[in-house]
Specification:
It is a single chain. This protein has 3 domains: 95 residues, Beta Barrel (conserved putative lor/sdh protein from methanococcus maripaludis s2 fold), CATH 2.40.420.20; 156 residues, Efflux pump adaptor protein, beta barrel domain (Elongation Factor Tu (Ef-tu), domain 3); 62 residues. It is 25% helix and 37% strand. It has 4 helices and 21 strands. It has a 6-stranded antiparallel beta sheet, with no helix packed on it. It has a 6-stranded antiparallel beta barrel with strand order 3-10-13-12-11-14. Strand 16 and strand 17 form a beta hairpin. The radius of gyration is 50 Å and the shape is elongated. 20% of the residues are buried.
């Protein structure tokens, strides 16, 4: 009997694929690597957050500002306004009658006296008519004398003498009328002053009303300026006025208030004030723009600050004071402290502080927009705001 060959049957373990066991180790290594990366990134972020938290706990650097100690200055109360100069007397010289210009008896810019001849018009025919009327009037006077003699001898009636007297008066009136016409042909200065530029030439025909030249009296000269109605109580006749103009830089003219208008302009609520200013050198001319300052009352003492130091808010005006305080380390530091103030009049770049600040207080004058109560400040006055009582233009 032949023996049969037997094949061993595979076990359950032999049925699992062997390559699967080989992938486990690489996967574990990859997972480990990912965990290491996550841990590294998390550690970095934790370090960064810790650093930010630590920085937030540190005190911020001080804010750089400019500051100035509040001082008391003596102010002379005055009311300032802008206006214009006006001639003491001024007129455009014209002619009442027409005629041909015979002579021009002045030079432009010349000083003339009252009654001085300016322009002579041709008046030959008018003078001839005047002479004829004078002769007629002379004849009427002779007739009247003769008739009066006859009346004394009862040779004529009284009615004839009365008619002669009326005729003489009429003739004399005609003479006076013609003499007035002849006089109008001589155009004269109505008052003393400076004559302006003219375009009139000999031989030119002038119509009635044509301008000959401008005549102005400028010493003294008027300065008219407007004042708000709430300040008019501080102005009275005779108050001194200081006048300056941009046309004459560095020069000041002194005058006094000589007139106050009798009504308030309903549109602007201003009152016009007139000052009379001496102008012996005739440097001020009519029509110039002028600055007027009226001295009002005795000098006053005010605590002053630059206007840039004050912040105006709907709830009131405030300033920041730089006060010395102790920090946690016991060191003296300058700290911002907000204070409400009441402001008064202004003068140039300065403003008067009526309350809220004491003399000697260190007040922040610029950079306060970056401040709040308790902010540390550092004073640097290398670039300080303007603080002039009478500022002048920076560029001239």
């Amino acid at each position: 009997m032949s023996s049969a060959t037997t094949t061993p049957s595979p076990t359950s373990g032999d049925l699992e694929p062997r390559p699967k066991k080989k992938l486990i180790k690489p996967m574990l290594a990859m997972v480990g690597l990912v965990l290491v990366l996550v841990a590294a990134i998390g550690g970095t972020k934790v370090a960064q957050i810790s650093k930010v938290i630590a920085q937030s706990k540190q005190a911020p650097p001080p804010v750089v500002v400019s500051a100035l100690k509040a001082t008391v200055a003596e102010w002379q109360p005055e009311i300032t306004a802008v206006g214009s100069t006006k001639s003491f007397r001024g007129v455009d010289v014209t002619t009442e009658v027409g005629g041909i210009v015979r002579t021009v008896a002045f030079k432009p810019g010349q000083e003339v006296q009252a009654g001085a001849l300016l322009v002579q018009l041709n008046a030959d025919s008018d003078i001839a008519n005047l002479q004829a009327l004078e002769a007629t009037a002379g004849l009427a006077e002779t007739v009247l004398k003769r008739d009066r003699a006859q009346l004394a001898a009862n040779a004529i009636a009284q009615a004839q003498v009365d008619s002669d007297e009326a005729d003489l008066k009429a003739k004399r009136a005609q003479v006076a009328q013609q003499a007035s016409l002849v006089a109008k042909k001589s155009i004269r200065a109505p008052f003393a002053g400076r004559i302006g530029i003219t375009s009139v030439n000999p031989g030119q025909y002038l119509n009635p009303g044509d301008k000959v030249a401008s005549l102005q009296t400028v010493d003294p000269i008027y300065v008219d300026f407007n004042v708000p109605q709430d300040q008019i109580a501080a102005i009275s006749l005779g108050q001194p006025v200081d006048v300056t103009t941009d046309a004459l830089r560095g020069k000041s003219f002194t005058g006094k208030v000589t007139a106050i208008d009798s009504k308030v302009d309903p549109t602007t609520r201003n009152v016009t004030v007139e000052a009379t200013v001496a102008n012996p050198k005739k440097e001020l001319l009519p029509g110039m723009f002028a600055h007027a300052a009226v001295v009002s009352g005795a000098p006053q003492r005010h605590l002053t600050l630059p206007q840039t130091a004050v912040t105006y808010n709907p709830y009131g005006a405030t300033v920041f004071l730089a006060v010395t305080k102790k920090d946690p380390a016991g060191q003296d530091v300058l700290t911002a402290q907000q204070s409400f103030v009441k402001t008064g009049p202004t003068r140039g770049d300065q403003v008067a502080i009526l309350s809220g600040v004491k003399e000697g207080d260190l007040v922040v004058t610029s950079g306060q927009l970056k401040l709040k109560n308790g902010s540390a400040v550092k004073v640097d006055n290398r670039v300080a705001p303007a603080n002039a009582a009478a500022p002048t233009p920076q560029e001239q």
